[in-house]
Write a structure and sequence with these properties.
Elements: E1 9-14, E2 23-28, E3 38-41, E4 47-52, H1 54-59, E5 64-70, E6 76-83, E7 87-95, E8 101-109, E9 112-120, E10 126-133, E11 143-147, E12 150-157, E13 165-172, E14 177-184, E15 190-194, E16 200-204, E17 207-211, E18 217-223, E19 230-238, E20 241-248, E21 251-257, E22 263-266, E23 270-271, E24 278-281, E25 287-295, E26 298-306, E27 312-319, E28 326-334, E29 339-346, E30 358-364, E31 374-376, E32 390-392, E33 396-399, E34 403-406, E35 411-414, E36 419-423, E37 428-435, E38 442-444, E39 452-453, E40 462-464, E41 468-475, E42 481-489, E43 497-498, E44 502-503, E45 514-515, E46 517-518, E47 521-530, E48 536-541, E49 546-547, E50 550-551, E51 554-555, E52 559-570, E53 576-587
Parallel strand pairs: 1-36, 37-42, 44-53
Antiparallel strand pairs: 1-2, 2-30, 3-4, 4-5, 5-6, 6-35, 7-8, 8-9, 9-10, 10-34, 11-12, 12-13, 13-14, 14-33, 15-16, 16-17, 17-18, 18-32, 19-20, 20-21, 21-22, 21-23, 24-25, 25-26, 26-27, 27-31, 28-29, 29-30, 38-40, 39-41, 41-42, 43-46, 45-49, 47-48, 47-52, 50-51, 52-53
Length: about 600
């Protein structure tokens, strides 16, 4: 184990009597270096934690993005640092159904404002990184969503000489621009989701919007409460509608809008801070809400469950030996293993006379008790007397486009393993590594048939040929864990690419397409074809980009064409490298 110079996590591992329902409670001993951890879950139950460096926020320059994957028992799978030369601030993350990671944030370079997306594979290696330029941006209201082959970007445009505007942008999963809309009115805070029907529900302060799959406005409503309550969280999709949270004077309540934007119900008021809760709809449509309750000077993590129609079913508060002064809270629910994981963040810019603790806790939906925290009596709920009136909202909306560039110079490095056992058991970690030549492979035999590869590979023995770290685990539960970690290293090897100087698209199944050939692990390819007058006649992107000698399905003339190629590949250090070139190619019939 290693202690990080900038952060120490004390891992408190607790074991549940319900098999895979593993409980743990972790804290960060020095949260002053981190800003706002958010979490997401992989399909196998692992948790991804992403945050940015508080150093950048304080200095206004530089900045690091931290991403850490932990397994279901709270053990580190990998931890990486992503650093750009400009000021960078993490805002949101998403994990696709195939396990690809999307990290979203804002960036400054001098007076140039932009947003960034870093796409990773499940091992933390960069697949693609891009900058987008949506006019003027600010560090508020950024949300990313991923569904099938679509990536949604949502955020705030801020021009100090005009009113605030929001943007809603759709990309494909290779981060290519599809369409974008800007609209007003808009406030500084908000959130958005892609619905199961591929529509978009967006919120900005008291404003609620619904857009169709092409970004056309379906309806917009403004909430006009009479008691000063402010909508602070949502939307969350559930059957027949969408959930939101409103808060006033230390009390929150949930309300549901139907698919047409009409109020269906609201819950009783429950004690919660104005920083916002994290709601999740369970498979039985019950609503599980992680939130914070003020208890004197401390803020306790709490858990409240409502029925599908908003009736209160259960409330719990958690106490630890450590006083928690938490500002924000996020949760992820693993219903397959009946687990809830909650991340809480202290206010790094708050009072200096109190201990600041960031925590990560996991408990079972079926059994909330544990050795390292105990249940406390929850605060009593109150009758909700808020009169809520939703009125139609006039929206100014127009199409927009975002220029984009590859995010050059992104540095990737390993973060030291910052988990250390605090209570309960640990793991036995066996580390093996080897250095091979560029074209050599490593045949690995697992110790016995109780081990399984964490990335889902079923091979044993397994042939390793790509640089990286591969982990195999043998465990019956979290108390009996043995991990073998195999690290394959190779020297920097040249990426060789070849584009033919001629091709013959005549249908004889020989040399009919023009494509790039390489021995590299390509992440992306963009191919643009120009005729002899400099006019673009063809464009394709993707790892298998190729030209068949046609334009709009019609054969072009024989002759010389100029081919411009941009490509990115993963080098032996796990970093993305990018190159471009152009060359003349002769087309023969």
């Amino acid at each position: 184990m290693y202690w990080s110079r900038i952060i120490i996590w004390l891992l408190l591992v607790i074991y549940s009597i319900t098999g895979m329902g593993q409980q743990f409670f972790s804290i960060i001993d020095d949260p002053d270096n981190y800003f706002n951890q958010k979490i997401a879950r992989f399909s196998n139950g692992d948790i991804l934690i992403v945050d940015s460096s508080l150093e950048a926020l304080r200095s206004g320059g530089g900045g690091k993005i931290y991403a850490t994957r932990i397994d279901i028992c709270g053990n580190t799978v990998w931890s990486s640092i992503y650093e750009h030369n400009n000021y960078s601030e993490f805002k949101d993350l998403a994990i696709s159904s195939s396990g690809e990671i999307y990290i979203y944030g804002s960036e400054y370079q001098g007076l140039q404002e932009s947003i960034f997306i870093i796409k990773l594979n499940g091992s933390g290696n960069v697949i693609l990184a891009k900058l987008f330029y949506p006019e003027s941006v600010d560090h508020f209201a950024y949300t990313i969503g991923v569904k099938e082959n679509q990536v949604m970007l949502y955020g705030l445009l801020l021009d100090f000489n005009t009113k605030k505007q929001g943007f809603l942008v759709s990309l494909d999963d290779n981060l290519n621009y599809k369409w974008g809309k800007i609209f007003a009115p808009f406030e500084s805070i908000g959130d958005a989701i892609i619905t199961k029907n591929n529509e978009f529900i967006c919120r900005s302060g008291q404003y609620h919007f619904k857009f169709d799959a092409n970004g056309n406005l379906i309806w917009a409503k403004e909430l006009m409460p009479n008691l000063g309550a402010r909508t602070i969280q949502g939307p969350v999709e559930m059957n027949n509608g969408f959930l939101f949270e409103s808060n006033q004077q230390g009390q929150s309540f949930l309300y549901q809008l139907d698919n047409e934007g009409n109020l269906r119900w609201k819950t009783a008021q429950f004690a919660a801070t104005a920083s916002g809760s994290s709601a999740h709809v369970l498979t039985n449509q019950n609503i599980a809400v992680a939130h914070l309750c003020a208890d004197g000077t401390a803020t306790l993590p709490s858990y409240t469950i409502f029925s599908p129609n908003g009736a209160l079913l259960q409330q719990k508060m958690y106490q630890t030996e450590l006083p928690l002064f938490t500002k924000t809270i996020y949760q992820s629910v693993d219903q397959q293993n009946a687990l809830v994981t909650v991340a809480g963040n202290a206010d790094p810019l708050g009072r200096n006379d109190i201990a600041k603790v960031n925590f990560l806790m996991q408990f079972s939906l079926d059994n909330n008790a544990g050795d390292c925290f105990e249940l406390a009596e929850p605060l009593v709920t109150q009758v909700n007397t808020a009169q809520m009136n939703f009125i139609p909202l006039d929206v100014n909306i127009s199409a927009t486009n975002m220029r984009s560039d590859l995010m050059e110079g992104l540095k990737v490095s390993k973060n030291k393993d910052f988990f250390a056992p605090y209570c309960g058991g640990g793991i036995e970690l066996v580390q093996l590594d080897t250095l091979l030549d560029c074209d050599n492979d490593w045949l690995v035999n697992l110790p016995n048939n109780t081990f399984f590869w964490e990335d889902g590979n079923k091979d044993n023995p397994r042939l390793l040929n790509t640089v990286g770290t591969y982990r195999a685990k043998s465990t019956d539960d979290c108390a009996q864990t043995q991990i073998y970690e195999y690290t394959l290293r190779k020297p920097a090897c040249q990426c060789k690419v070849y584009l033919p100087t001629a091709f013959t698209p005549n249908g004889d199944q020989m040399n009919d397409e023009l494509q790039l050939f390489t021995n590299c692990n390509l992440q992306s390819v963009q191919m643009t074809v120009y005729n002899r007058w400099g006019q673009q006649v063809f464009y394709a992107n993707g790892e298998n980009a190729a030209w068949d000698g046609t334009v709009q399905q019609k054969p072009v003339q024989e002759g010389v064409y100029v081919i411009a190629v941009q490509y990115a590949w993963l080098d032996n250090e796990g970093n993305t490298q990018q190159r471009s070139f152009s060359q003349e190619v002769t087309l023969y019939r």
